[in-house]
Amino acid sequence: MEITLLHYTPLDVCAHAIRTCWQSFDKGDEGGEKDKALIDRVGNKFKHASTMEHLVYTFYIQGVSRALLQELARHRLASPSVKSTRYTLKELKETEPFAEDDYEGAERFIVLTKNALVDSASIKALNNLQAILKSGVSNDLAKFCLPESYKTELTWTINARSLQNFLTLRSNKAALWEIRKMAYALYGSLPEEHQYLFETCLYKEKANS
């Protein structure tokens, strides 16, 4: 999995939006400590969370499974643009079949779970899909045979309010392991000056757990 932050809204834009309500622009400091405290106070402590929607982040997410992609679909207030299997299955079609234990080679196309039974089954599905493609079946039909482990990538845009919700739910130990890994990676890719808004969203193990 690789996550790249492509673009983000400067903090002073969110602070400006908040100060619009009270016309307190003269108290701003262009995204400095005063503005940071204002955003945290109004957006988090006072629960005027709609103000956080003025902060928007765009990520390029690579090497995740289609199983994870389904999980992302449950987060409504985010915009995904996903790699098309209609145009990209030729990458698989042009390779040679994989041995059932060729995890290193197959990892180009599938996310491995480190469970031998599951990963071997994914490789079998990969080879089956490849054989169907080579037989001349169109990509649009062949993609119905895609294993859930098949890798994809997407550009994903989400506002801070929705990202807080995402991190709260998906960093939890009950979340799918892959999307939990993604949650922490998303947080890690945020600008350092933005991370304070999301620190309390990350799951923390209980001391006696």
Describe this structure in words.
- By secondary structure, the protein is an alpha+beta fold.
- The chain has two domains: 2-64 and 69-79 and 152-201, Gyrase A, domain 2 (2-Layer Sandwich), CATH 3.30.1360; 84-151, no CATH class.
- 44% of the residues lie in helices and 15% in strands.
- The chain has ten helices and four strands.
- The chain has a four-stranded antiparallel beta sheet.
- α1 (11-22) crosses α2 (33-45).
- The protein is elongated and about 70 Å long.
- The protein starts with a strand and ends in a 20-residue tail after the last helix.
- The model has no long low-confidence stretch (mean pLDDT 93).
Structural topology:
Layout: E1 2-8, H1 11-22, H2 33-45, E2 56-65, H3 66-72, E3 78-82, H4 85-88, H5 90-93, H6 103-106, H7 116-134, H8 139-142, E4 151-159, H9 160-170, H10 177-189
Antiparallel strand pairs: 1-2, 2-4, 3-4
Question: What is the gist of this entry?
Answer:
The chain is α+β, with helices and mostly antiparallel strands and 209 residues long. Helix content is 44%, strand content 15%. The protein has two domains: 2-64 and 69-79 and 152-201, Gyrase A, domain 2, CATH 3.30.1360; 84-151, no CATH class.
Strand order of the largest sheet: 1-2-4-3
| Total beta-strand segments | 4
Give the overall silhouette.
elongated
Task: Specify the oligomeric state.
Answer: single chain
Q: How much helical structure, as a percent, in the residues?
A: 40-55%
Strand content: 5-15%
Q: Say what the CATH topology of the largest domain is.
A: Gyrase A, domain 2
Span from first to last CA?
Answer: 28 Å
Which architecture of the largest domain would the CATH scheme give at its second level?
A: 2-Layer Sandwich
Instruction: Enumerate the spans where pLDDT stays under 50 for 5 or more consecutive residues.
Output: none
In round numbers, the mean pLDDT is: 93
Number of domains: 2
Return Rg in Å: 21 Å
Q: What is the H/E order?
A: EHHEHEHHHHHEHH
Name the structural class.
alpha+beta
- Total DSSP helices: 10
The CATH class designation of the largest domain is: Alpha Beta
Tell me the major beta sheet.
Answer: 4 strands, antiparallel
